[in-house]
Amino acid sequence: MTDTSRPTTTTGLRVPRVFSTEGVHPYDEVTWELRDVVQTNWRTGETVFEQHGVEFPDFWSVNAATIVTTKYFRGAVGTEQREHSLRQLLDRVVDRYAAAGLEHGYFAGEADAAVFGDELRWLLLHQYFSFNSPVWFNVGTSSPQQVSACFILSVDDTMDSILNWYREEGLIFKGGSGAGLNLSRIRSSKERLSSGGTASGPVSFMRGADASAGTIKSGGATRRAAKMVVLDVDHPDIADFVATKAREEQKIRALRDAGFDMDLGGADITSVQYQNANNSVRVSDAFMRAVEEDGTFDLTARTDGRTLETVRARELFASIAQAAWECADPGLQYDDTINRWHTNPESGRITASNPCSEYLSLDDSSCNLASLNLLAFLRPDGTVDTGSFVAAVELVTTAMDISICFADFPTEAIGRNTRDFRQLGLGYANLGALLMASGHGYDSDGGRALAASLTALMTGAAYRRSAELARVVGPYAGYARNAEAHQRVMGQHRDACTALTTLSDVDGAVHDRAGREWAQVLALGAEHGFRNAQATVLAPTGTIGFMMDCDTTGVEPDFSLVKFKKLVGGGSMQIVNATVPRALRTLGYDEETVEAVVAHVAEHGHVVDAAGLAPEHHEVFDCAMGVRAIAPMGHVRMMAAVQPFLSGGISKTVNLPEDATVDDIAEVFTEGWRLGLKALAVYRDNCKVGQPLTTGTPTVRTADPEPTPETPAEVRPVRRRLPKSRASRTTSFSVGGAEGYMTAGSYDDGGLGEIFLKLGKQGSTLAGVMDAFSIAVSIGLQYGVPLETFVQKFTNLKFEPAGMTDDPDIRMAQSIMDYIFRRLALDHLSTEQRTELGIHTARERARHVETGSYDPPVEELAADAAPEPAAPAPTPAPARPDPSAAHTTTELVESLSGRTVDAPLCYVCGTKMRPSGSCYVCEGCGSTSGCS
Q1: Which residues of the chain have pLDDT under 50?
Q2: Which ranges constitute the DSSP H helices of 106-179?
């Protein structure tokens, strides 16, 4: 496709055709077909939606068509007013944008407005981009023309302001959107009121707002409202704020253990407070430096700024990490970093964000979003079509700015600030898929270089178009006051682009184009100013990602290599992501190898040990879940790579395994600050109780609380004791110079039943701890805890003594525990189980180098068929769950990996959702857990 030309007139934009064809309507270029959309809740069997004869292009997936039909078509189902074709939806929205652009002087004439409409239709029709959900809900209907999904509110230290906060949040929740605000202006519970009494403090007022959010279901649906609450780290009530949700999580656990229904949406969860908001602590550079130096930090009064308390910064930071470890809240927002990149500091500081932390701007403001489908701009040869990408950015930026001209807003203050600063939130989806398809690992230098270059190009092209719009229709109202700061931030973006190191021709070409765009940004901005205070963010793109048939959302990697595909006429099938064969071809593999690897992925869900695949290419196929799951810091490093090229922040939660420590979370938070992120949230697997993770039928409560004869007996694990005489194996070992002995006893069927560890002098503390540990593990084994579980938990633990061992199969160990459980795995687990854990003997590793497989040849298997009398037989591999029982990609991944994914069940169709940025999204019906 050709590149777009630049406007040469101040009387309006000239819009060239880049995507559409002169004289041919975009709808006439595709083949249309009629479909029936029937949506059921598979758990209850209830039909939740039904519309027959809807019209979509034949290349749109069943999933995309279903989500658009159920979510975005307007009008009562079964009436003539109900939309039934994608043409109607696109015309309703695009016609409004084109007409408003012509009315407000954006285009040189009607012909340019018509071309603009054709170009937008083509891009939307071919799934190159999508507006955020409120646009599809509202634009062109009789409803208020709300186009924004992200809101930031404000609250002052007065009762009128606090009550108004409750009211404004309620209005936003009622409309299906979310909001965030900073409570730090409210005086602390340690300060006096003018009447002489003691103030309630912000944590107390959070209780009322939380109850309101829980009562007003977002958009009239059954999901919770989406809200963010921020408190500055120097607020005197910061300790209470940090512990708020952790204390409630303890309450949830106690009530659950007492038999109450504490699942999200359960009958008893409403008795627990503070569950309807994400909490974040706004930390400063001064505080983070005090943490590094183990210094002190002052907590100051809101009324007069005096110091009320001095704390050890490291202890306060540890409490934040501890709370996040317990319940995933609070996250962190890095105040000085955010405001260093603020284009409007003369109009006020940035103090808060929207619920997902990607929109960071002035109080009482909003942002409308749109996202590009990155994979649509990847050529078959693995290079990026930068000309088409830039042209799409120009068109979408223009459309988003036009929408502010006709948009409605929930409050007068939000409307005024949005029109004065015209904040936009252009972003992208399918980054993970693009990186894989182009042969780049997500957690690799090459992957980060390409992602950073693309983000730099997107923001540079958006701001360049913003300067061109300023030439045509004028800069934003707040620009004159903030011109110097805005230009300074543009220079920071340009400098970051200049400093970016590229590693291949692919990212090099994108980077070169980005550099040219940023040079124009500074030149045009200096002459004309800018139309928009902000241009780009990275939002979750949950529902609209499905509308574009994206494999991945926002900045996320691929969730898994296998997924469910809905079929015409109902039903679904398991498929391997189309990105996998495309990536293999990009990497140069022949069709025979491609077919073999795809078949391996279909069976196992990963590429480890796939025939013909080079080990150095494994990283290309690493995903968020599975055998080669991307490490937490891999996610942080990707966020850091793209953050310097975004006006706002990134909606993303860094997931950590269940066995992650408080120190691990503290490290993630610290590195986020050092690497220049604006905001960061974490989630440790299974840290929250209040999530509907069960896949069974929920228990039905009866009116009679008394037990009945039909009440099932409580099922408890039964201890399987070892026989009086049993086979055992004693192993001597040396780790880092420390010597010891391990004795492992087995059942008659060969299963491991006990271990004894001898380390240290008899009677010493170390010997006593080892004895106690041996007893605990042995009892666990006898009560049915699989050995694989112990191996997963205790391998890779790092502490002294560590280092060289005298075991030829395990040459290095990170600790005594790391060695012991690797040795137990080698002695008692099957090859298949150990392959899942990445543990092999020296002989197996040598065989893999020679043959590409850890499995022994057939003749060797036959020779080893008769077990040695003294050696215990390996524990039989557990039966793999049947993937056919799954109903979503999330459940499919669980069945293949044997690991549970922390995610709620969809409130509409009952299927298990999957992560999307800081939220969850249902791939069955497109519903989200809190973000529009």
Answers
A1: 1-9, 218-223, 691-715, 861-884, 932
A2: 110-125, 133-138, 159-174
Question: Is the separation of the CB atoms in 540 and 651 below 8 Å?
Answer: yes
Q: How far apart are CA 608 and CA 600, in angstroms?
A: 9
Pairing mode, strands 296-300 and 352-353: unpaired
- Sign, CA dihedral 114-117-119-125, equals negative
Comparing CA positions, the residue from 854, 841, 831 lying closest to residue 809 is 841
pLDDT at 580: 94
Domains of the chain: 26-147+354-543 (no CATH), 150-353 (3.20.70.20), 558-628+877-901 (no CATH), 730-839 (no CATH)
CA distances to 171, 179, 228, 277, 307 from 225, in Å: 11, 9, 10, 8, 36
- Do strands 572-576 and 562-566 pair parallel, antiparallel, or not at all (unpaired)? antiparallel
Return the number of other C-beta atoms located less than 10 Å from residue 283's C-beta. 24
Tokens of 165: 């906060």
Max Cα distance, the chain (Å): 96
Question: What does the alpha-carbon distance between residue 874 and residue 543 come to, in Å, rounded to a whole number?
Answer: 47
**Which residues does 39 contact at the CB level (< 8 Å), separation at least 6?**
47, 48, 49, 50, 66, 70, 908, 909, 924, 925
Quote the CA–CA distance of 326 and 250 in Å, as a whole number.
Answer: 9
Residues 887 and 912 sit within 8 Å (Cβ to Cβ): yes
SS3 per residue for 45-76: CCEEEEEEEEEEECCCCHHHHHHHHHHCCCCC
Structure tokens at 857: 């040849």
Say whether 351 sits in a helix, a strand or coil.
Answer: coil
Cis preceding linkage at 801, omega within 30: yes
CB 880 within 8 A of CB 895: yes
Rg (CA), the chain: 29
**pLDDT tens across 74-111, in order?**
999 999 999 999 999 999 999 999 999 999 999 999 99
| Cβ-based neighbour number of residue 675 at 10 Å | 17
Q: Which amino acid is at 844?
A: E
Q: Give the type of residue at 737.
A: G
Task: Copy the structure tokens of residue 752.
Answer: 């491991």
Q: Is 266 helix (H, G, I), strand (E, B) or coil?
A: coil
Using CA atoms of 100, 101, 103, 107 in order, give the dihedral in degrees to the nearest 10: -160
Tell me what pLDDT residue 440 has: 96
Tokens matching residue 386: 């930068």
Report the pLDDT value the prediction gives residue 43, as an integer from 0 to 100: 64
Tokens describing residue 784: 């049915």
Which 8-state DSSP code applies to residue 725?
Answer: S
726: its two tokens: 């049993």
What pTM was computed for the model?
Answer: 0.78
Of 141, 591, 216, the C-alpha closest to 406 is 141
Interior CA angle at 301 toward 295 and 307, to 5°? Answer: 40
Residue 10 corresponds to which amino acid?
T
Pairing, β 360-361 against β 352-353 = antiparallel
How many CA within 13 A on the CB side of residue 296?
Answer: 6
**What are the C-alpha distances in Å from 329 to residues 92, 310, 601, 683?**
41, 24, 36, 8
- Is residue 361 within 8 A of residue 533, CB to CB? The reply is yes
d(CA 277, CA 180): 9
Token match 């959070």: residue? Answer: 206
Q: Which two tokens stand for residue 44?
A: 């209850």
The pLDDT value recorded for residue 46 is 79
Peptide bond into 709 cis (omega under 30): no
Is 403 within 8 Å of 135 (Cβ atoms)?
yes
Residue 812 pairs with which residues in a beta bridge?
804
What is the 8-class DSSP label of residue 559? S
223, with CB counted inside 10 A (0-12, 13-18, 19+), is buried
pLDDT at 114: 97
Partners of 562 in the β-ladder: 576
Under 8 Å between Cβ of 611 and 596: yes
Query: Which positions are catalytic?
Result: 354, 356, 358
